[in-house]
Amino acid sequence: MEKGVFIVLEGLDGCGKSTQAKLLYEWLKKEGYNALITAEPTRNEIGRCIRKILSGKKRYNPKTLSYLFISDRHEHLEKEIKPALDNKKIVICERYYHSTIAYQAAQGIDMEYLIELNSFAMDPEIKPDLVIFLDVKPDIAASRTSTGEIFENEKFLRGVRENYLRLDNLTRIDGNRPIEEVFSDMKKVVSVLL
Description:
By secondary structure, the chain is α/β, with parallel strands linked by helices. It has a single domain (5-191), classed as Rossmann fold, CATH 3.40.50. It is 53% helix and 14% strand. It is built from 8 helices and 5 strands. The protein has a 5-stranded parallel sheet, with helices on both faces. Helix 1 crosses helix 8 (179-191) and helix 4 (97-106) packs antiparallel against helix 5. The longest helix has 25 residues, at 62-86. It is globular. The mean pLDDT is 92.
Protein backbone atom coordinates (compact mmCIF):
# COMPACT_ATOMS: atom_id res chain seq x y z
CA MET A 1 0.00 0.00 0.00
CA GLU A 2 1.56 3.31 -1.11
CA LYS A 3 -0.37 5.51 1.28
CA GLY A 4 -2.69 5.26 4.23
CA VAL A 5 -6.42 4.77 3.79
CA PHE A 6 -8.96 6.85 5.70
CA ILE A 7 -12.33 5.16 6.35
CA VAL A 8 -15.13 6.89 8.28
CA LEU A 9 -18.19 5.18 9.76
CA GLU A 10 -21.21 7.42 10.23
CA GLY A 11 -24.77 7.00 11.40
CA LEU A 12 -27.30 7.58 14.13
CA ASP A 13 -26.64 6.67 17.74
CA GLY A 14 -27.45 2.97 17.93
CA CYS A 15 -26.70 2.22 14.26
CA GLY A 16 -23.90 -0.24 15.08
CA LYS A 17 -20.83 1.91 14.27
CA SER A 18 -18.72 0.63 17.17
CA THR A 19 -19.54 -3.00 16.45
CA GLN A 20 -18.81 -2.66 12.74
CA ALA A 21 -15.63 -0.65 13.36
CA LYS A 22 -14.27 -3.40 15.62
CA LEU A 23 -15.19 -6.13 13.12
CA LEU A 24 -13.53 -4.17 10.32
CA TYR A 25 -10.39 -3.57 12.40
CA GLU A 26 -10.11 -7.26 13.32
CA TRP A 27 -10.66 -8.35 9.70
CA LEU A 28 -8.02 -5.92 8.39
CA LYS A 29 -5.48 -7.08 10.98
CA LYS A 30 -6.19 -10.71 10.08
CA GLU A 31 -5.63 -9.82 6.42
CA GLY A 32 -2.20 -8.41 7.33
CA TYR A 33 -2.98 -4.69 7.22
CA ASN A 34 -1.72 -2.15 9.74
CA ALA A 35 -4.87 -0.46 11.06
CA LEU A 36 -5.90 2.08 13.65
CA ILE A 37 -9.37 2.41 15.14
CA THR A 38 -10.33 5.81 16.54
CA ALA A 39 -13.44 7.86 17.25
CA GLU A 40 -14.89 11.32 17.71
CA PRO A 41 -15.36 12.83 20.17
CA THR A 42 -11.83 11.85 21.11
CA ARG A 43 -10.41 10.98 24.51
CA ASN A 44 -8.41 14.21 24.73
CA GLU A 45 -9.43 17.09 26.98
CA ILE A 46 -11.81 18.67 24.44
CA GLY A 47 -13.37 15.29 23.65
CA ARG A 48 -13.92 14.58 27.37
CA CYS A 49 -15.66 17.93 27.73
CA ILE A 50 -17.93 17.07 24.79
CA ARG A 51 -18.77 13.69 26.34
CA LYS A 52 -19.86 15.45 29.55
CA ILE A 53 -22.13 17.72 27.52
CA LEU A 54 -23.60 14.75 25.63
CA SER A 55 -24.28 12.98 28.93
CA GLY A 56 -26.35 15.96 30.06
CA LYS A 57 -23.93 16.83 32.88
CA LYS A 58 -23.11 20.18 31.26
CA ARG A 59 -25.23 22.42 29.04
CA TYR A 60 -23.95 24.46 26.13
CA ASN A 61 -25.45 26.39 23.27
CA PRO A 62 -25.62 24.19 20.10
CA LYS A 63 -23.30 26.58 18.21
CA THR A 64 -20.72 26.38 21.00
CA LEU A 65 -20.99 22.60 20.91
CA SER A 66 -20.27 22.74 17.16
CA TYR A 67 -17.10 24.74 17.82
CA LEU A 68 -16.01 22.18 20.42
CA PHE A 69 -16.51 19.30 17.97
CA ILE A 70 -14.52 21.15 15.31
CA SER A 71 -11.69 21.96 17.76
CA ASP A 72 -11.61 18.32 18.88
CA ARG A 73 -11.45 17.22 15.23
CA HIS A 74 -8.55 19.55 14.44
CA GLU A 75 -6.54 18.06 17.32
CA HIS A 76 -7.57 14.56 16.25
CA LEU A 77 -6.38 15.16 12.69
CA GLU A 78 -3.04 16.62 13.73
CA LYS A 79 -2.16 14.24 16.55
CA GLU A 80 -3.67 10.93 15.49
CA ILE A 81 -5.15 10.64 12.00
CA LYS A 82 -2.46 12.42 9.98
CA PRO A 83 0.49 10.59 11.64
CA ALA A 84 -1.25 7.23 11.12
CA LEU A 85 -1.92 7.97 7.44
CA ASP A 86 1.68 9.14 7.01
CA ASN A 87 2.72 5.72 8.39
CA LYS A 88 0.54 4.02 5.74
CA LYS A 89 -2.03 2.74 8.23
CA ILE A 90 -5.69 2.16 7.49
CA VAL A 91 -7.54 4.56 9.78
CA ILE A 92 -11.06 3.56 10.83
CA CYS A 93 -12.78 6.54 12.43
CA GLU A 94 -16.17 6.40 14.11
CA ARG A 95 -17.72 9.75 13.26
CA TYR A 96 -16.16 12.71 11.49
CA TYR A 97 -17.38 16.09 10.24
CA HIS A 98 -20.54 14.54 8.77
CA SER A 99 -21.79 13.91 12.32
CA THR A 100 -21.23 17.50 13.37
CA ILE A 101 -23.19 18.71 10.36
CA ALA A 102 -26.05 16.20 10.69
CA TYR A 103 -26.47 16.49 14.46
CA GLN A 104 -25.94 20.23 14.91
CA ALA A 105 -28.20 21.02 11.94
CA ALA A 106 -30.88 18.96 13.71
CA GLN A 107 -30.41 21.36 16.64
CA GLY A 108 -31.31 24.26 14.36
CA ILE A 109 -27.95 25.49 13.08
CA ASP A 110 -27.85 26.28 9.36
CA MET A 111 -26.35 23.36 7.43
CA GLU A 112 -24.41 25.54 4.97
CA TYR A 113 -22.90 27.46 7.88
CA LEU A 114 -21.80 24.15 9.48
CA ILE A 115 -20.26 22.92 6.22
CA GLU A 116 -18.30 26.17 5.86
CA LEU A 117 -17.28 26.14 9.52
CA ASN A 118 -15.98 22.59 9.27
CA SER A 119 -13.93 23.42 6.17
CA PHE A 120 -11.79 25.82 8.22
CA ALA A 121 -10.78 23.08 10.66
CA MET A 122 -9.90 20.53 7.99
CA ASP A 123 -6.66 19.80 6.21
CA PRO A 124 -7.58 20.02 2.50
CA GLU A 125 -5.11 17.20 1.76
CA ILE A 126 -6.73 14.80 4.22
CA LYS A 127 -10.14 13.67 3.06
CA PRO A 128 -11.80 10.34 3.83
CA ASP A 129 -11.30 7.76 1.09
CA LEU A 130 -14.60 6.17 2.08
CA VAL A 131 -17.49 7.34 4.26
CA ILE A 132 -19.92 4.56 5.16
CA PHE A 133 -23.32 5.65 6.39
CA LEU A 134 -24.88 2.83 8.39
CA ASP A 135 -28.50 3.72 7.73
CA VAL A 136 -30.87 2.61 10.48
CA LYS A 137 -34.49 3.61 11.05
CA PRO A 138 -34.67 6.17 13.88
CA ASP A 139 -37.04 4.04 15.98
CA ILE A 140 -34.67 1.06 15.75
CA ALA A 141 -31.65 3.26 16.53
CA ALA A 142 -33.37 4.77 19.58
CA SER A 143 -34.34 1.32 20.86
CA ARG A 144 -30.71 0.13 20.60
CA THR A 145 -29.19 2.96 22.65
CA SER A 146 -28.94 2.93 26.40
CA THR A 147 -26.26 5.48 27.33
CA GLY A 148 -28.78 8.23 28.07
CA GLU A 149 -27.01 10.80 25.89
CA ILE A 150 -28.97 13.93 25.05
CA PHE A 151 -29.45 13.10 21.35
CA GLU A 152 -30.79 9.57 21.84
CA ASN A 153 -34.48 9.97 21.11
CA GLU A 154 -36.44 8.97 18.06
CA LYS A 155 -37.80 12.40 17.11
CA PHE A 156 -34.37 14.03 17.17
CA LEU A 157 -32.73 11.10 15.36
CA ARG A 158 -35.31 11.40 12.58
CA GLY A 159 -34.03 14.91 11.85
CA VAL A 160 -30.42 13.74 12.05
CA ARG A 161 -31.09 10.96 9.51
CA GLU A 162 -32.71 13.45 7.11
CA ASN A 163 -29.60 15.64 7.38
CA TYR A 164 -27.26 12.72 6.67
CA LEU A 165 -29.25 11.88 3.56
CA ARG A 166 -28.67 15.45 2.30
CA LEU A 167 -24.87 15.05 2.45
CA ASP A 168 -22.79 14.04 -0.56
CA ASN A 169 -20.29 11.21 -0.95
CA LEU A 170 -21.74 8.80 1.60
CA THR A 171 -21.82 5.08 0.83
CA ARG A 172 -25.10 3.91 2.34
CA ILE A 173 -25.33 0.46 3.92
CA ASP A 174 -28.60 -0.80 5.37
CA GLY A 175 -27.85 -1.16 9.09
CA ASN A 176 -31.29 -2.54 10.00
CA ARG A 177 -30.14 -6.07 9.14
CA PRO A 178 -28.21 -8.64 11.20
CA ILE A 179 -24.62 -7.70 12.10
CA GLU A 180 -23.09 -10.35 9.79
CA GLU A 181 -25.01 -9.10 6.73
CA VAL A 182 -24.03 -5.49 7.40
CA PHE A 183 -20.39 -6.49 7.83
CA SER A 184 -20.44 -8.51 4.61
CA ASP A 185 -21.44 -5.34 2.74
CA MET A 186 -18.80 -3.35 4.63
CA LYS A 187 -16.06 -5.76 3.53
CA LYS A 188 -17.18 -5.45 -0.10
CA VAL A 189 -16.93 -1.66 -0.20
CA VAL A 190 -13.68 -1.54 1.80
CA SER A 191 -12.06 -4.22 -0.38
CA VAL A 192 -12.29 -1.89 -3.38
CA LEU A 193 -9.86 0.49 -1.62
CA LEU A 194 -7.25 -2.12 -0.70
